[in-house]
Amino acid sequence: MDRKPHELRNLLPREVLQARLDAETAPRTTLSFYRYAHIEDPQAFRDECYARWEPLGVLGRIYVATEGINGQLSVPTPNLKAFREALYSVPFLEGTRLNIAIEAEARSFLKLIIKVRPKIVADGLNDATFDVTKRGRHLNAREVNELLAKEDTIVVDMRNHYESEVGYFEGAIRPAVTNFRDILPVVEEMLEDQKDKEIVMYCTGGIRCEKASAYYLHRGFERVSMVDGGIIEYARQCEAQGLEKKYLGKNFVFDERLGERITEDVVSRCHQCGRPSDRQLDCANTSCHILFIQCEDCADAHEDCCSEECRDFNRLPEDERARLAPGRTFNGQRFGKAMPPRSEPESGAGIQ
């Protein structure tokens, strides 16, 4: 299938994409997958994937690198079989497990984005210094629960703080960092004197733990395991087998949903008033756009903004906002992608 380069990407504006998605009548299935493999020409492979998947109505975000592929997708359910066949027609992807989301029919993506990256996960590691194929043991849901029941098991959340803030495994170590490359040295330092202990790591879909487990084994940790398929697969297995869920709250996802509920527990608090809430959103002030947690009452009072400053700025006419924005600093510039975690309700009234 010959496609010109400009035809291998979607350049339609968001409102058109949203209207197109809203007009769909067929259900969709949200899923994710990854596979470490040697890809000689990532750009050619990327273009081939786009040309094959776009006619099937596939939406999502996929990263391709010389080390493999990592994708989060939404596929029209009637086309799921055709997509699986197209995926498995690539020799190194044959048999790749598709992690079906808990809230699988949610509208999770607006368009198909496939990008070539240096790595499929930005880990900051020099892969040439250790054997990336010597990874930790994969645990199914039952094995996870059995290990978590043992007192000396150490559980480590390998996600960013804004992911673990709204949901986590009971008793997990949750580093207060904002990107994966920073988690690796922080966890290593925290567990330096416990390298002989049973360590269970987990992340959203398992891909971050694949590389991290190999790195920690290389660094002298003796018993490193990972939740196979991450939180997504763990929750699916618990549902299918009637197992108790040791993961509490929501699972943060990197799509339009921002999260899917695993249990009814609300483990986080509104960043503004401190009351229990796990409603995550991006600040409505697009000049800020920080990710934060806000309860319904504060959402009404602040109009989905992270602060009174952002609310008042957002009320200004569009042309005035455009004129003033370059000289203003909002929470998004101060804190980066997400608001710092709030763990104690008595610590004040939040960022106003």
Structure in words:
Residues 344-352 have low confidence and may be disordered. The termini are far apart. The protein contains 12 helices and 14 strands. The protein has 3 domains: 5-116, Alpha-Beta Plaits (2-Layer Sandwich), CATH 3.30.70.100; 127-249, 3-Layer(aba) Sandwich (Oxidized Rhodanese, domain 1); 268-347, no CATH class. The protein is α/β, with parallel strands linked by helices. The longest helix has 12 residues, at 42-53. It has helices at residues 14-22, 42-53, 80-88, 141-148, 161-164, 180-190, 207-218, 230-241, 296-302, 308-314, 318-324, 331-335; strands at 28-36, 59-65, 68-76, 99-100, 112-116, 137-139, 154-157, 167-169, 198-202, 223-227, 247-252, 259-261, 280-282, 291-293.
Question: What is the structure about, briefly put?
Answer:
The chain is of the alpha/beta class. It has three domains: 5-116, Alpha-Beta Plaits (2-Layer Sandwich); 127-249, Oxidized Rhodanese, domain 1; 268-347, no CATH class.
Write the topology of this structure.
Blueprint lengths: L13 H9 L5 E9 L5 H12 L5 E7 L2 E9 L3 H9 L10 E2 L11 E5 L20 E3 L1 H8 L5 E4 L3 H4 L2 E3 L10 H11 L7 E5 L4 H12 L4 E5 L2 H12 L5 E6 L6 E3 L18 E3 L8 E3 L2 H7 L5 H7 L3 H7 L6 H5 L17
Parallel strand pairs: 2-5, 6-10, 7-9, 9-10
Antiparallel strand pairs: 1-3, 1-4, 2-3, 8-11, 11-12, 13-14
